[in-house]
Amino acid sequence: MSASSPPSSLGTALVTGASSGIGKVYAQKLARRGYDLIIVARNRSRLDELATAIATETGRTVEVLPADLGKAEDVAAVAARLADDPAITLLVNNAGSGTEGPIIGADPAKIDAMLDLNVRALTRLAVAAVNAFSARGRGTLVNIASVVAIVPEQFFGAYSATKAYVLALTQSLGAELKDSPVRLQAVMPGLTRTEFFDRAGLDINALPAHMVMAPEDLVEAALRGLEAGEVYTIPSLPDASGWDALTAARMVLAPDLSHARPAARYGLAAAAE
């Protein structure tokens, strides 16, 4: 779907997982901020409906790109679009899934499918984006992680591990792109009222209501964080100094994480080499 407006000076935002939930809200809000869009998801009919609504409301150009990011060939097609389309200035790496229970007793095939989407597809698209943006001298990568990356003990292991990977990937890219014009943001939502829970076989209504955020509030906070220059955004966190303290605590460990000999507390430091 496209409108008759000229190309946006902000460029085009490519949003994955855009047919519902967080991705859908990102698409709506980015168009209202002046971006043209490429919206990606499996469900073509939902994408078409969303594209028509956004183009009608905002006058921005909205292109539908149906893709199943659990399939390598579809991931490759979206990655190629990121690499080849100079109009794309923003990737919202949002598509993801969760399992319906603990690792113990889980279906390994479901875990594999989650890894394909949450880790392999996200990484392929992130790599395509940062390489393209670096070559163009402009661009922003937003990776949707989760607060369970910080407290994996409080959620199901395999899903938590995938989101810890997303956070670690963003942190690693941040060091690599420190002096680059490419901008990065890792967004770490808490519990969010979306279809994610239905697809994972979980009842969000069984969770404390005061802990569950509306996706509209989540995305608006994330975008304001991006506009304020945040690299790591936790929309629920009252004081950003809490994240800074966690980062500082990790860095305190850094000088002692790799030595030629085991620590003295193991009683091996004086052993012959």
From TrEMBL:
The family database entries (InterPro entries) matched by this protein are listed as: NAD(P)-bd_dom_sf (IPR036291), Sc_DH/Rdtase_CS (IPR020904), SDR_fam (IPR002347)
Q: Where are the transmembrane segments?
A: none
Pfam families assigned to the protein according to its UniProt record, in alphabetical order: adh_short
Keywords in alphabetical order:
Oxidoreductase
On the tree of life, the source organism's domain of life is Bacteria
CDD domains, per database record: SDR_c (cd05233)
**Has UniProt tagged this entry with the keyword Ribonucleoprotein?**
no
* GO MF entries: oxidoreductase activity
Q: Which family does it belong to?
A: Belongs to the short-chain dehydrogenases/reductases (SDR) family.
Name of this protein: SDR family oxidoreductase
